[in-house]
Every structure is written in structure tokens, then in C-alpha cells.
Amino acid sequence: xxxxxxxxxxxxxxxxxxxxxxxxxxxxxxxxxxxxxxxxxxxxxxxxxxxxxxxxxxxxxxxxxxxxxxxxxxxxxxxxxxxxxxxxxxxxxxxxxxxxxxxxxxxxxxxxx
Length: 113
Description:
- This protein is α+β, with helices and mostly antiparallel strands.
- It has one domain: Cation efflux protein, cytoplasmic domain (Alpha-Beta Plaits, 2-Layer Sandwich).
- The chain has 3 helices and 4 strands.
- The protein has helices at 17-29, 47-53, 78-97; strands at residues 34-37, 55-56, 67-73, 105-112.
- Strands 1, 2, 3 and 4 form a 4-stranded mixed beta sheet that branches.
């Protein structure tokens, strides 16, 4: 995908997919109630790969539309945790990478104790 962020006073740069996925994953982990990023069974070799492997960035014409997979702690409101993840991920991509975010899809894969 390698998104080119919005204009920043004539500076040209690109942010790679791996960096954007990691940024989104770290933002999601900051939300209270998110237990962890869910391990991708095919990529489950390194902790960093698990973290990055649970965020997808589908190819888009304009803006980003990340899909974040999370586990939610038992007793937390799943809809509220998902909304907070959407806000946090969109904000991080916008503020830290200058990327326009079309939407953030959240997939809750499991509930953990």
C-alpha cells in the first residue's frame, strides 16, 4: 500500500505498510479492555510478527481502512472497546503518520479472562 500522507509543506515521503500496521496495532493495545492482539496462527513465530500480523491494510484508492483483530477482556463492553479501538487507531494514523483514515474495522476474535 505504501501511503503517501497529506501534504506537509512540500516534503515528500512515504510510509510503508509494515510501519502503518505496527502503528495501528500499538494504538489498539493502548485501549483499556484490549487483552492483546490475537496471534495469527500462520505468522505466530515472533512477538512482533503476531502484533503486526493482526492488522490488515487493504489496498484503497483514497485513505486507509485498517482491519484490526483484537481479544477483549471478559467483563468489558465489547461494543465500547471496539469503538475506542476505532478512535485510537484512526487518531494515531492521522496524527502520527498524516494518513487520512476512511474507516477502521474491528474484529473481536475472542474474549479472554
